[in-house]
Amino acid sequence: MDIILFFIFLLACGAAAVTGVVFKPGVWYENLEKPAFTPPNWVFPIAWTSIYVLISFAGARLAVVEGNAYAMAFWAAQAALSTLWTPLFFGLHKMKAGLLAIVPLWLCVLGCLITAFWLDFWAGLAFIPYMVWVSIAVALNFEVWRLNRKRGVIPSRP
Asked: Which CATH superfamily is domain 3-148 in?
């Protein structure tokens, strides 16, 4: 694996990570009704840090494999959609718009997983935690929207 490529992919993941720092869950999210399967807050930074390292590893491995066009296209699309979801959901408090971003994100992660396995076993393996996490996130986004859609947007500040 090319370490420079790894850090380039990690830099791309950093853009999505920055949206998580800028658009924090805050009071708005705390006041929402959430399903019982909502992970505790401390799990999120651990999960995302691990996922970003793993998919950067996968991207670096896939970037040098012949026939990687679809894998790289899915990788780029998931990075863009991952960066978009946080401002929609946490920044604008648009739960339904979040769904419109996270469902295509799920499909792109699935595309990454499948194409990665076709090209490189270890890269495919690295996408499994992301697939699991985004599956949970889709269910969580949907349930938060369903449980709170009649309540309207809850102000983030008093």
From this structure: TspO/MBR protein (1.20.1260.100)
